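Dock flavin-adenine dinucleotide; give full complex structure.
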Amino acid sequence: MSGAALPTVAKAGKTAFAEAMLFTHRGLSGPAILQVSSYWRPGSPISLDLAPDRDATGHLLAMKRDRPRAQPATILAEMLPARLATALAAQELPTLPMAEIGDAPLRMLGAMLNGWTLVPDGSEGYAKAEVTAGGVDTSCLSSRTMEAKSVPGLHVIGEAVDVTGWLGGYNFQWAWASGRAAGEAV
Ligand SMILES: Cc1cc2nc3c(=O)[nH]c(=O)nc-3n(C[C@H](O)[C@H](O)[C@H](O)COP(=O)(O)OP(=O)(O)OC[C@H]3O[C@@H](n4cnc5c(N)ncnc54)[C@H](O)[C@@H]3O)c2cc1C
């Protein structure tokens, strides 16, 4: 599956990101996964909607009715990258034309496409992380000068502070803005 990419809605808890997802040789990556990883905690599930903006079950049942002779992999390849479609069809459905497949497996596959829930067995850790997602508590710092309230003369900025931005430049912005505030105060 490595290299296959698709739009997805990735969700951890109540936080969701509609962005691209990428299968890699080691697991899942891409903007949606990187974003949601900041909200993921070890042992908890994430859910992935692989057919965003579409009721996958309704679509599969409609295709069974409208295109009874089509192979499921063909139908799935219209919604998903071809390699993913082939793999899912082989794993989840019998090799039969759509008309001969029961509604139940189509419903199960449709539910999975709109809400694939899995518990990641880990992240790549700090070696690959884009942001530390932790640091000095903001309540211990002056928001104007970034000076530590209990240690006069010590200023804490950027990644060293417990401030985490979404992807898209917010972490650079935070590093530069907090650095400038501290520099001006010094
Ligand atoms: C792969 C990757 C991609 C990223 N992409 C984005 C992005 O697209 N958009 C975005 O907003 N953010 C991105 N980030 C996050 C962003 O780079 C950081 O949030 C930002 O650089 C933090 O700035 P900083 O000055 O706090 O820390 P850093 O940039 O880490 O600077 C700390 C500096 O201190 C030096 N240092 C460490 N220890 C010592 C020491 N003992 N003595 C002297 N120097 C020392 C380090 O060498 C380093 O140069 C990305 C991060 C990574 C790793």
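Observed: Residues 1-129 form a domain with the Elongation Factor Tu (Ef-tu); domain 3 fold (CATH 2.40.30.10).
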